[in-house]
Design brief:
1 helix, globular, mainly beta, four-stranded antiparallel beta sheet, three-stranded antiparallel beta sheet, 112 residues
Length: 112
C-alpha cells in the first residue's frame, strides 16, 4: 500500500484527493494523520461503504478501510473534514458526461 498525500482545500479543515478505481472495481482506502503510518484513521467497520459511518483513530493497529465500488478507471474525489473535534468524509465518483444518474433510480422504481 502506497501512501498518497491529500491536499488542503480552500475551506479550513478540509483535505482532498482524487484517486482512480483499480481493476476489480473497488477502491479501498484509509487515512494517515499527518502522513504517519502509526496514526491510521478509518471507519469503525471494515470494508465500509457508508459515508456516515463513525470515524475512528488515529490508531497504529487500525486496519479498517472504506470501500468505493465503481467502474475500473473512474475517478473518485475524496474529501475529509477534520476540525474542532468534528470529522466527516465524503467521496464522489465522477460520472460520464452523458450519465444523468437517473438509470439507477428508474431500476429501483421498477422493482416495486
Amino acid at each position: 500500500e502506497e501512501a498518497v498525500p491529500m491536499e488542503d482545500a480552500e475551506v479550513p479543515g478540509v483535505h482532498r484527493i482524487t484517486l482512480q478505481v483499480p481493476s476489480g472495481g473497488v477502491l479501498e482506502f484509509r487515512l494517515l494523520q499527518g502522513g504517519n503510518a502509526k496514526e491510521v484513521v478509518g471507519p469503525e467497520e471494515d470494508n465500509c461503504t457508508r459515508k456516515a459511518a463513525s470515524i475512528v483513530g488515529p490508531d497504529a493497529k487500525l486496519t479498517n478501510k472504506w470501500a468505493v465500488h465503481a467502474a475500473e478507471g473512474k475517478e473518485v474525489r475524496i474529501e475529509f473534514f477534520n476540525r474542532g473535534g468534528k470529522r466527516s468524509i465524503i467521496w464522489i465518483v465522477d460520472r460520464d458526461a452523458g450519465d444523468s444518474g437517473l438509470a439507477g433510480a428508474a431500476a429501483l422504481g421498477d422493482e416495486e
